[in-house]
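Structure tokens please, single chain.
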Amino acid sequence: MNDSSQEWASRGQQPGPPRAPGHHGEAPAHVSSPSPAAEIRIEIDSKRLRAYARTRAGEPTVTVRSADEVTKGNPLAHVHVAQEGLDEGRRARPPFTVSGPNAEPLCSVRPTGQGVYEVYGGDGAPIGRITRLDGRVLPWPRRARWTLQPAAGGEPLAAKRGTPAGWALIVVFSPVYLVIWALGALQGLVPLLFGDKDEAKKESAWDLGLPSRALWRTPGDSGVVIDYRGGGTFYITSSRLDARLAYAQSVLHVWDGV
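Here you go.
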């Protein structure tokens, strides 16, 4: 990990509890267990990602900003999407690079097709792979799934879109949603009859708001490493994940429009 990433990770470390002095030269005794690792909060504007081809030359496509209460809005990294890159939707986003606040290179992300992305450090060395599997209803229901595998080895981090409780609520209240959507469509017909297409779009626009929360963790581990709660905001346990991989995964995930 480069110096910028080390600095990012060190922010997530909290000083340990005081240690009581030992006796006769013995090692100091622990007073209590260490404090848990702090969370780093970041936010990304998904609208700018979708408009990557209209970014001015030399300007970042989007900026990863701090969402912490004290440092909210401060730039943490800049994302540059290749303007000539073809966006094939969720199966293959264009290549992009991530640089630090002072333009120091952090990582580059390259699609290899079928929802697979290779992540390389600023020196070109591989640091991880990110994979996305589409959701489906048949032949059996499956939520969209992300897998993040660090190149250094170890258990991969996996996340599925939405929680089981969130999807259960969608199923239970789907008839109500259908009625609301139908009323919105009828409401949009009124201005359309008078030739006002823009107003008709506003009146009929309605989003079902499918569950979007995603929790990245290793299999069999209840500890969450990345927690996406919607709105382009991510809560990241900084001591358990390379900052560069966290940025790459967050950009790809919010690009889904969730």
